[in-house]
Amino acid sequence: MPIPLEGYEDKRIYVWFDAVIGYFSASVEWAQRQGTPDAWKTWWEPGKTEQPVKSYYFIGKDNIPFHAIIWPAMLLGYGNRNLPYDVPANEFMTMSGAKASSSRGNTIWTPDVLDRYGADTVRYYLSATAPEGRDTDFTFEELIRRNNDELVATYGNAVHRTLSFLQSKFGGVVPQPGHLREADREILAEVDRGFTLVGHNIARCHFKDGLNAAMAVARAANRYLDEQAPWKQIKTNPEEAGTTIYTMLQVISALRVLFYPYLPFSSERLHGYLGFEDDISHLGWHSQTVPAGKKLPTPAPLFPKLEEPVRV
Asked: How far is residue 49's CA from residue 38's CA, in Å, rounded to a whole number?
C-alpha cells in the first residue's frame, strides 16, 4: 500500500509490517463497533487490569522475526503497549513426507477428517506429533496406530476395565473403600504429580510434554490395575477389590481433567459416566471425588478402534 506522506508516495509498506499491526488495529475497531471505544485498552495498556494481560503469539518458525522483533518494536514505538509475553513457534509438519498441497490432493479437509476419525482422535494425534521442537510428518497410518495403541489400549482401556468391572461386580455402585494400601497411595500420588506436570507444561506452551505427562498417569493406572487384579481379589476379599475399584475411579476422575485440554469431548462423556451432571468446564484444574455409594450409569467405550487408514 502507498504511504500517505508527502515525499514518500513512491514507497510501499512491507506486508509483514502492515500485517502485524492488525492485531492492535482490529481490537480498536472492535471496541468502536461495540460502542465501547476504550475497551481495547484492557488488553493493550499495561496496568488496566488487576491481573496483567499475557499475550501469546502462536506462529510458525518462518514468522519468528516479525513477532519477536518487529512487532515488539512497533508496540514500543506506539507508546509502550502490552508486549508479547510469549511467542511459541512451531517447526513445520509435512503430509506423508511432502509439503501439504491442495492442488495435489496432499492435504487434510477438516470436515472429512472429523467425520471419519472424530475430533478427539484428530486432536490427540496433532498434539502428540506437534512440531514443537523439530519438523514432523502427518500420516493417516500413524494417526490410526496412536489411536488404537494409546487412546484405546491405554487411556480407554483403564477407563473401560474399571467401569465395566464396577457394573458387573458392584451393580454400578461405587464401593466403600477400606484402609488405603501403599499401592493405593502411590497411584494417587502419581495423579497429584500429573496435575503438576501437565499444568506446568501447558503454562509453558509445551503441549506435547503435557499430553505425555497425562498419558503417563494412564499407563500407571493400568499397571496398578494389573498388579492389584480386582478380578482375583473379588473371589477372596471383596472389600479389597472394592478399595481397588474405588481408587481407580478417583484416578480416572482425575484423568478426565488432565486430558480435558486435549480431549474435551471424551472428557465430557467420562464426566457423565462418573455420574456428574454439571459442566466439566466449571471444575477447574483439580480432581473431583467420586463418592462411595453413588450409582453410576452404564458406560460405553471412550474411543473407537480404527481398522484401516482412509484417505481424504
From this structure: 13
